[in-house]
């Protein structure tokens, strides 16, 4: 087996395949290997729509072999060690691969075990999570069958992929219950580790209205750490005004939970990680996407310490920067392309209406369309539910969008 590649990509998800395709469009003779153990490739942004009962889960998954760009080599292995001083990675099978240039993008790790009891009750007892391919359909089953009572939606204290997903599903659930005429029987709580509903004030203002209209009780700065499904009770920590941490609990009838997240363990345990980052992400220059200590290493997607919102939308802007800068160093030129922290969060505020929140590192709105995107509208709903899924499979993974 060939064990040396000019460019080795770790992770064949949204980031890995976008960047491989874009590299080959620029230079078709590149020798690229992509290491990824997964047989399947997922379009995760549609899991919110699956949980809301308007998207077929089977349309969010394809075989990895069918989406791997032609003229690359898929290596079905899992990396577990980086040796950047020797330009080498080792896989859990013991196999080693060497490279001239490395691109690291194995995504983010879902730390289900950090909420005691969650993993065992997922998919039953009216507890679900759209963060799982397996369980997103159960979210809809719960929402559709809910007849009233206490509904709890959680958001962890850690950074996560798609910061909007924990509350997107809440707005859709509330809208569904309103349309069923049962909202007055629903006591809806949002238990969030964040301190605000959204980090960009222009978009936060819209969501504050949506929360008010749905009579949603918001609890900020709380740390959900246990679910006792048998007793339908959720436990969380909350600071009082004196700064003391109090352990509180709430009975629930329905719970949508989002796990804490961090860098995959093999990144956390590696020399590539940012020592100062509590979640162990890969240390890169947040503008050039180049590793700060190993110049032939780049990283993008959910695994980096770039302080942007972790989304596929961010990857669309990061991938061309990685491609331009990687080709520059191959040509012994300076890296000049810069990523400005752009990210986007499409937030459905009700069925048929969506607010497309776009912003950069400075949390300044960066609206693409000539309308006020802070105002939810139907066109953005169509973009999210119809256009983006098509674009993902047909253009983004192929490097043409
Ligand atoms: C519920 C939900 C809703 C979302 N909504 C949106 C949205 O509306 N808009 C948006 O832009 N984004 C959204 N996202 C976020 C988006 O899906 C991610 O940001 C994006 O998939 C990240 O791409 P990535 O390539 O970094 O990671 P991934 O796409 O997760 O891919 C990582 C790849 O690395 C592989 N890998 C893992 N470990 C190893 C290893 N040891 N060795 C080699 N390979 C490995 C995995 O098998 C996987 O194929 C959402 C996510 C979720 C879960």
TrEMBL record:
Domain FAD/NAD(P)-binding positions: 5-127
Domain of life according to the entry: Bacteria
Gene Ontology MF, one: quinone binding
Keywords of this entry: FAD, Flavoprotein, Oxidoreductase, Quinone, Transit peptide
Keyword Transit peptide: yes
InterPro entries: FAD/NAD-bd_sf, FAD/NAD-binding_dom, Sulphide_quinone_reductase
UniProt-listed GO biological process terms: sulfide oxidation, using sulfide:quinone oxidoreductase
Cofactor: FAD
Record flagged with keyword Flavoprotein: yes
Listed name of the protein: NAD(P)/FAD-dependent oxidoreductase
Species for this entry: Flavobacterium caseinilyticum
């Amino acid at each position: 087996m060939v064990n040396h590649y000019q460019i080795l990509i770790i992770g064949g998800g949204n980031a890995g395949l976008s960047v491989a395709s874009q590299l080959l469009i620029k230079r078709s003779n590149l020798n690229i290997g992509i290491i990824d153990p997964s047989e399947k490739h997922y379009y995760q942004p549609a899991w919110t729509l699956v949980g809301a009962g308007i998207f077929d889960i089977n349309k969010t998954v394809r075989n990895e072999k069918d989406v791997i760009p032609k003229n690359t080599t898929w290596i079905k292995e899992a990396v577990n060690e980086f040796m950047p001083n020797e330009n080498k990675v080792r896989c859990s099978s013991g196999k080693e691969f060497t490279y001239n240039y490395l691109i690291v993008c194995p995504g983010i790790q879902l730390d289900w075990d950090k909420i005691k009891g969650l993993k065992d009750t997922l998919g039953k007892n009216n507890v679900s999570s759209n963060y799982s391919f397996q369980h997103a359909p159960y979210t809809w089953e719960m929402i559709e069958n809910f007849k009233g009572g206490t509904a709890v939606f959680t958001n962890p204290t850690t950074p996560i992929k798609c910061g909007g997903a924990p509350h997107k599903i809440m707005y859709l659930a509330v809208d569904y219950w309103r349309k069923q005429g049962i909202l007055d029987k629903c006591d809806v709580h949002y238990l969030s580790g964040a301190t605000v509903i959204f980090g960009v004030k222009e978009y936060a203002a819209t969501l504050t209205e949506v929360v008010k209209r749905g009579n949603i009780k918001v609890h900020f700065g709380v740390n959900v750490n246990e679910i006792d499904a048998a007793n339908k009770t959720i436990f969380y920590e909350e600071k009082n005004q004196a700064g003391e941490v109090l352990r509180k609990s709430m009975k629930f009838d329905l719970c949508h939970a989002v796990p804490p997240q961090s860098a995959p363990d093999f990144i956390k345990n590696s020399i590539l990680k940012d020592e100062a980052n509590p979640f162990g992400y890969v240390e890169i220059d947040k503008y050039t996407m180049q590793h700060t200590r190993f110049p032939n290493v780049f990283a993008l997607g959910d695994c980096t310490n770039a302080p942007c919102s972790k989304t596929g939308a961010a990857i669309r802007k990061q991938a061309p920067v990685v491609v331009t800068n990687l080709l520059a160093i191959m040509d012994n030129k300076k890296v000049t392309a810069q990523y400005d922290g752009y990210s986007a969060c499409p937030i459905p505020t009700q069925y048929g209406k969506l607010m497309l929140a776009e912003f950069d590192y400075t949390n300044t709105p960066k609206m693409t369309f000539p309308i006020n995107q802070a105002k939810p509208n139907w066109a953005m709903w169509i973009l999210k539910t119809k256009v983006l899924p098509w674009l993902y499979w047909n253009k983004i993974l192929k490097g043409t969008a």
